[in-house]
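Bench log. Compound arrived from synthesis this morning; before running ITC I wanted a structural hypothesis for how flavin mononucleotide sits in the protein. Inputs:
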Amino acid sequence: MSHRVVVGISGGIAAFKSAALVSRLAQRGLDVSVVMTEAAEQFIGAATFSALCNRAPVINAFDSRYPLGPHIELATDCKLFIVAPATAHIIASCAFGLADCLLSTLYLNMECPIVFAPAMSTPMWEKPAVARNVDQLKADGVRIVGPDSGWLSCRRMGAGRMSEPEAILSACEPFLV
Ligand SMILES: Cc1cc2nc3c(=O)[nH]c(=O)nc-3n(C[C@H](O)[C@H](O)[C@H](O)COP(=O)(O)O)c2cc1C
C-alpha cells in the first residue's frame, strides 16, 4: 500500500499554514511530495518544504527528477491529493479541466481521493463564478474543506479564510488509513 500523499500549494497568503499541514503529514510517516505553483513561491519558500518533506518541492512541469513528467509520476500510487490553499485560479483551472500548469495537469492525472481547501477574500469567495467552479469540483468528486470565516489578510472579517491544518487533516483522515 502506497504512503504517498501529494500536497499542492497555490498562490494565496494561507500558504504559510500549509507548512504545518505538510509537517503533520510527514510526522505520520507519510511520503509527502509538495507541488507549488509559481505564484505560491511568492508566499512561502521552497526550502521550507524541502526540509519538511526531505525532498525539494516540484515547481517546474519539466523537472528532470521526473523523466515521465511529475504530473504522471506523482499521480502514480498516490493515496491522497490535497490542494491547500486552493486559489480561485486553481479551482477554476481544475473545474474546467485546464492543464495549464503543473498543479492543474497533475489534478487531471490523479485517480485517488482529492481534497481542496479554498482560501480567498470574501468578495472572491462569494462571486458566482467561484461558487460555480466549486460546485463543479464537488460534482466531480472533490472534497471541499472550508473555507472558514474570520480574520482575512485583507484586514477584514468574513468568509474565505483557509481552514486550519487540523481541520484539513480531519477531513483527510478517512483516506489516510
Ligand atoms: C498578497 C496577495 C494575496 C493573494 N491571496 C490570494 C488568496 O488568498 N486566494 C486567491 O485565490 N488568490 C490570491 N491572490 C491572487 C493569486 O496569487 C493569483 O490569482 C495567482 O494568479 C494565483 O495563481 P495560482 O493559482 O497558479 O497559484 C493573492 C495575490 C496577492 C498579491
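What the model suggests: Residues 10-14, 37, 39-40, 87-90, 101, 119-120, 124 surround flavin mononucleotide (CB under 6 Å). The chain is about 40% helix and 20% strand.
ITC booked for Thursday regardless.
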